[in-house]
């Protein structure tokens, strides 16, 4: 049986998921995975984010594109949980990506390093 509820697309999915995560943070940890992660604390959330990152890397290395998409969804979900724990919204990340759009990666990285914001991504 398929769910006939309309689903958001694109960036709307991130915002909708962020709303669900925010609602579930306060739920009963016995009833909600998000609430259970929050009850266990930031270290547990970061551990899960690391695990999902490793699983994403393995799927990519194994050239399993279906697994890659599935693991990337898990990674993004856990990243959103961490963002929520730190009081941020996916729109903050999208705004930052928008700010960087059109800049060369080399120039953008140099600008971050001179402003004191450092990241190791390329």
Model description:
The chain has 122 residues and is mainly alpha-helical. It has a single domain, classed as Orthogonal Bundle (Helix Hairpins), CATH 1.10.287.1080. Helix content is 70%, strand content 0%. The chain has six helices and no strands. Helix 1 packs across helix 4 and helix 3 packs antiparallel against helix 4. The relative contact order is 0.11.
- Listing every helix as H and every strand as E from the N terminus to the C terminus, the arrangement reads HHHHHH
Number of domains: 1
Helix content class: over 70%
CATH superfamily: MazG-like
Q: What kind of oligomer do you see? A: single chain
SSE-based structural type: mainly alpha
- Based on CA inertia axes, which overall geometry fits? globular
GO cellular component, one term: cytoplasm
Keywords: Amino-acid biosynthesis, ATP-binding, Cytoplasm, Histidine biosynthesis, Hydrolase, Nucleotide-binding
Pathway: Amino-acid biosynthesis; L-histidine biosynthesis; L-histidine from 5-phospho-alpha-D-ribose 1-diphosphate: step 2/9
GO molecular function, one term: phosphoribosyl-ATP diphosphatase activity
